Amino acid sequence: MKFNTKAIHGGQKHDPAYGAVMPPIYQTSTYAQSTPGGHKGYEYSRTHNPTRAALEAALASIEDGNHGLAFGSGLAAIDAVMKLLNPGDEVISTNDLYGGTYRLFTKIFEKFGIKFHFVGMSDVEAIEEKINRNTKLIWVETPTNPMMNVVDIAACSAIAKKHEVLLAVDNTFATPYLQQPLSLGADIVMHSATKYLGGHSDVVMGALVVRDNALAERLYFIQNASGAVCGPQDSFLVLRGIKTLHVRMQRHCENGRAVAEYLKNHPQVEKVYWPGFSDHPNHEVARSQMRDFGGMISFVTKGNDFQKAISVVEKLKVFTLAESLGGVESLAGHPASMTHASIPKQEREKTGVVDSLIRLSVGIEDAEDLIQDLAQALA
Ligand code: P1T
């Protein structure tokens, strides 16, 4: 099955009770048993829920995996991956990544004896330098949030396999429409389903997809034992979102290109970060592992002036100043004070997250209106 068909039908069956084409929202915590253990496959909704199961099957299908797991947030999904590790284990992570992921690693899991190395992965050799016998996991975010660096997933996979460590890829920015990490050799793909998979800024959810049965078993155990699952209503909404992922992504990419090119030629703009530019340092890797370049763009205004950047985001009218991304509506953010405020200034500035950086999640409105909005805000 091709991707567009999988987005709509992947892993889906009509509901066995009445043939409902969309899975019902099984808003129940528990299931009747005729005798202890005598049930129809469902005992308790932390462990399994039919609406969540339908979503998990769809997630596995669109990522070309065998097992999908849905969680109460993207961070809950990452938390589950980290619980595969033991004290003393080490992780090599992308140095430019979502601030909340950095906070989870350094403020929660370091306390439990896990050591993190944050490295620039544009050149994958930097990963191998940090590998030692305690290394258990390579954590990759690509494209990175918010600097739009691109990491070569196949090259990371070769390193991971050589040293027998797991490779996990946060595929939130690209989505499986643009990039399929499992097919490039990753062991685990992770999503903040809050973003493009949900697509309408009305749900917070996370997801993992894997191919390996034993790894899936360990993650299902953690999902149930730690309990950070999502509810049936949210499962329904994300499943509905996935059905239009491919058409939304096409428009996100088209509008992203139009906005990136407009900004690049704007006299008030110093630099635009978008992997579709041929002079982006990882453009060739992006071209080879992504179908298109997405709708996420970061830029710095001329003079690198904090106040100017703030005044631009305040003046936007079609773009909403807000955290998050990946919805149908365009959003603008100021990473240094919003999504990446949990990373110390000195650390974030090393990767380019300066006080004047603005991040755009380009939505699927008319590109001309988006450009006019940016024009008036930058004027
Ligand atoms: O917000 P949550 O669903 O828990 O997902 C966390 C997360 C993980 N990975 C990436 C790449 C992300 O962008 C996020 C969440 N990011 C934002 C809220 C943001 O505005 O960048």
Write the layout of secondary structure elements.
Blueprint: H1 3-9, H2 50-62, E1 67-71, H3 74-82, E2 90-94, H4 99-109, E3 115-119, H5 125-130, E4 135-141, H6 153-162, E5 166-170, H7 175-178, E6 188-192, E7 206-210, H8 213-226, H9 232-242, H10 245-264, E8 269-273, H11 283-289, E9 296-301, H12 306-315, E10 320-321, E11 331-333, H13 345-350, E12 357-361, H14 367-378
Parallel strand pairs: 2-3, 2-4, 4-5, 5-6, 10-11
Antiparallel strand pairs: 1-7, 6-7, 8-9, 9-12, 11-12
Helix pairs in contact: 2-9, 3-4, 10-14, 12-14
The structure holds ligand P1T.
Explained architecture:
This protein is an alpha/beta fold and 379 residues long. The protein folds into two domains: 3-242, 3-Layer(aba) Sandwich (Aspartate Aminotransferase, domain 2); 246-378, Aspartate Aminotransferase, domain 1 (Alpha-Beta Complex), CATH 3.90.1150. It has 14 helices and twelve strands. The chain has helices at 3-9, 50-62, 74-82, 99-109, 125-130, 153-162, 175-178, 213-226, 232-242, 245-264, 283-289, 306-315, 345-350, 367-378; strands spanning 67-71, 90-94, 115-119, 135-141, 166-170, 188-192, 206-210, 269-273, 296-301, 320-321, 331-333, 357-361. The strands form two sheets. The chain has a seven-stranded mixed sheet with strand order 1-7-6-5-4-2-3, with helices on both faces. Strand 4 (135-141), helix 6 (153-162) and strand 5 form a beta-alpha-beta unit. Helix 10 (245-264) runs parallel beside helix 14 and helix 12 crosses helix 14. The model has no long low-confidence stretch (mean pLDDT 97). Bound molecules: ligand P1T. The site of ligand P1T has 20 residues, from helix 3 and helix 4.
